[in-house]
Amino acid sequence: MTNKYSDCFYCGGKVVERLLPREIRLENKLLIVENVPMGVCVQCGEKVLKPEVAESIDRIIREKKKPAKTISVPVYSF
Ligand SMILES: [Zn+2]
User: Fold this and answer.
1) How far is the CA of 48 from the centre of ligand 1 (A)?
2) Helix (H) and strand (E) counts for the chain?
3) What average pLDDT does the structure give for the chain?
4) Residue pair 2/19 in contact by the 8 Å Cβ criterion
5) Contacts of 35 (CB under 8 A, 6+ apart)
6) What is the phi/psi pair of residue 63, to 5°?
7) Is residue 41 over pLDDT 90?
8) Phi and psi dihedrals of 12, rounded to 5?
9) Residue 57: in which H helix or E strand, if any?
10) In whole angstroms, what is the distance from residue 54 CA to residue 59 CA?
11) Cys bridge to 36: 22, 29, 72, 74, which one at CB 3.0-4.6 A?
């Protein structure tokens, strides 16, 4: 797996890899996968997910592994 990302699609800025939590909504449930390697544009903050990373996230969810932890998420109505 390479750590290289192409320049930002939107602003042409440099994209660096960060480990970030990724929120996934699945059948009205909110799941969070932590420490997902994502490209983040240093200029505009646009996030880029590599196809293989997206696949790994899908696999984690499909396998329905026991989560590392469970947190409750407050939801506000605007
Ligand atoms: Zn950008």
Assistant:
1) 10
2) 1, 3
3) 90
4) no
5) 19, 20, 21
6) -70, -15
7) yes
8) 80, 10
9) helix 51-63
10) 9
11) 22
What is the CA(39)–ligand 1 centre distance, in A? 10
* Cβ count within 10 A of residue 54: 12
Distance 6 CA to ligand 1 centre (A): 11
Q: How far is the CA of 12 from the centre of ligand 1 (A)?
A: 6
DSSP 68: S
Q: What DSSP letter does each residue of 5-24 carry, written as one string? A: -PSPTTT---EEEEEEEEEE
**Both tokens of residue 8?**
């930002």
pTM above 0.70, yes or no: yes
